[in-house]
Amino acid sequence: MNVLLYRKVKSVCFLLAGIYLSIVFSSCSFPPPSPPVTPPPPVEFEALQPVGWDDIEGWPGTDLLASFGAFVQSCRVLQHKDDWQEACTAAAELEVKSGTTLMQYYEKWFTPHQVLNEDGTDTGMITGYYVPDLDGSRVRTERFAYPLYAVPEDLLIIDLRSVYPELGSYRLRGRVEGRRVVPYHTRAELNQGVETLSGKELFWVDDPVELFFLHIQGSGRIRLENGESVMVNYAEQNGHPYRSIGRLLIDRGAMSKDQMSMQNIRRWARENPEQVWSLLGENPSFIFFRELEPEVQSPPGSLGIPLTPEISLAVDPRTIPLGAPVFLATTWPYDPRPLQKLMVAQDTGGAIKGQVRGDFFWGMGNEAGALAGRMKQDGRLWVLLPRSADEENRPQPGGVASGQESFTDGS
Q1: pTM, full prediction
Q2: Fewest CB atoms less than 10 Å from the CB: which of 54, 85, 233, 326?
Q3: Which CATH number fits domain 131-291: 2.60.120.10, 1.10.3720.10, 3.40.50.1980, 2.40.240.50?
Q4: Among residues 276, 296, 307, which one has the least CA distance to residue 211?
């Protein structure tokens, strides 16, 4: 090969090599990073959305007369609030009480508001509660060995509303240890025995599981050996959050979510007696009770008004004002039949938290308990607010005050 030809071939080789390398390196290069994507701001939904009467599913429903009577009872409290005075006065002066006149009363004096969740959905969980009957004694015996306690002397209730108004709906519970305020004893600790509870026993009952259900419900009747029945009611709580034993049993595979009910928890306890105290102790919340007067036929709710079976509803007062009429659209427990009726928000509960959330009061005794123990289904709520109410008087964020919780809350 002559020199000239060699130089040409060499030049072509270098050119091809350069082209090849440029292709290789360009194919291996990385594009510049994309600018970060800013997520859109979350959409805020008003919890109480004004709607028309025709938008209420099933209005006017059933039992308007019974719910009207419960609302009139609520007016004993509501009449002292400016926005409610006119509606309560009109209710007291209403002479003819029929389905038609009551429907006209509500449509004249109130504006319906559908309750929405934070994400804008309109469906939530509806559970049930009741007043259980327990066999008991005023003294400890071999049979009656499990105590109900009154409020102990060392339980501190700390109210900060005068200094921090934004905490007005919260009350802290604790006890003094040295110079510090520390959390009060948990259920597990109290079940093991605490000196300050000595002498605070109100009654003794014969079944620890039924006693636990009494703590969940917040009220109950103690049937004494002499035939007397005594009503006991929530007085205070130890300040620890409620933890659902139903949820624990589901998580451990003891039963499915569809099987969860008070009846199945009882069955599990009978079949696993060696695990009962350990399970109950995992709910740190503990309720202290008071004995009510002999003439009391139904326990008072958080509003201070006696509860009405199948009319009173426990709600989260951060969304739904206590005393307000609330229309509920759901189904019967374990039954697809519609359950659509006007109720009254007269109670709260430790597990009743969230916008579309309600606890249906079924009444007293075993029959009510059978329905309450099986109730856990979807529902929708509409709150009736006086036409004179304005935004400033809507419920503000805060906490709940009562003791009744939910044994079927497996969510």
Answers
A1: 0.77
A2: 54
A3: 2.40.240.50
A4: 276
Give the whole-angstrom CA distance, residue 366 versus residue 32: 70
Rounded-to-integer distance, Cα 43 and Cα 30, Å: 37
Nearby residues of 34 by Cβ (< 8 Å), 6 or more positions away: none
Strand 325-331 to 338-347 pairing: antiparallel
SS3 letters across 92-161: HHCCCCCHHHHHHHHHHHEEEEEECCCCCCCCEEEEEEEECEEEEECCCCCCCCEEEECCCCCCEEEECC
Which part of the chain has CATH 2.40.40.10?
48-129+300-393
Q: How far is CA 76 from CA 106, 120, 201, 227, 323, in A?
A: 18, 34, 33, 34, 9
**pLDDT tens-digit profile, the chain (411 residues):** 444 444 544 554 444 445 444 444 444 444 556 666 666 666 667 899 999 999 999 999 988 999 999 999 999 999 999 999 999 999 999 998 899 999 999 999 999 999 999 999 999 999 999 999 999 999 999 999 999 999 999 999 888 777 777 666 667 899 999 999 999 999 999 998 888 899 999 999 999 999 999 998 889 999 998 989 999 999 999 999 989 898 999 999 999 988 888 888 989 999 999 999 999 999 999 999 999 998 888 899 999 999 999 999 999 999 999 999 999 999 999 889 999 999 999 999 878 999 999 999 999 988 999 999 889 999 999 999 999 764 444 444 333 334 555 545 544
3-state secondary structure of 250: helix
Using a 10 angstrom Cβ sphere, with 0-12 exposed, 13-18 middle and 19 or more buried, the burial of residue 307 is buried
What's the rounded Cα separation, in Å, for the pair 316 and 355? 7
